[in-house]
Write a structure and sequence with these properties.
164 residues, mainly alpha, 3-stranded mixed beta sheet, 74% helix
Length: 164
């Protein structure tokens, strides 16, 4: 359904652009075939596995401490028990922080490794579009315009109209 809407939209845009050349690619299909993407994904997955393992170890240690505390609950003073519960809550928050930081590290590594590949592909698309006279190139994999003729950019007019 999404693909047919995109094709119809491309056809309508194509007709309204008065014979301007419109092209499309599927970036997902292209990227999935690049060896450097496969290497990058492998590296990202290794980092992810390492962080997940550490997180699971932290959770398991916390659970064991909780079980031990529960078993010793009757043998300790209520104030001491509450202090130990507070320590466990603090440790639980540290685990949540670790998980958030882990997600951020994975995102950073992905951007670091995959960003240059995406940039290179976009430059290739722009070069091909210019060399072959395409005014617009659509990405059927993402539904985004990857290239447009700078003459068709209305950003400056919109900014002026909005007094920006």
């Amino acid at each position: 359904m999404k693909k047919s809407i995109l094709i119809v939209s491309l056809a309508i845009i194509s007709l309204s652009l008065n014979a301007q050349k419109v092209g499309y690619i599927n970036s997902q299909a292209i990227i999935s075939e690049l060896p450097e993407v496969m290497e990058a994904n492998s590296s990202i997955e290794a980092l992810k596995a390492q962080l997940v393992k550490k997180g699971q170890e932290m959770i398991q240690a916390l659970q064991q401490k909780g079980q031990k505390l529960e078993a010793e609950k009757n043998a300790m003073a209520p104030i001491k028990f509450q202090e130990e519960v507070d320590k466990l809550k603090k440790e639980e928050q540290e685990i949540v922080t670790f998980e958030e930081q882990s997600q951020f590290k994975i995102m950073q590594k992905s951007e670091f490794l995959l960003g240059p590949i995406q940039k290179k592909m976009n430059e290739v698309i722009k070069t091909i579009a210019k060399e072959n006279g395409y005014s617009y190139v659509f990405d059927t994999g993402a539904g985004n315009i990857l290239y447009s003729d700078e003459k068709a950019d209305l950003s400056a007019l919109v900014k002026a109209k909005m007094k920006l």
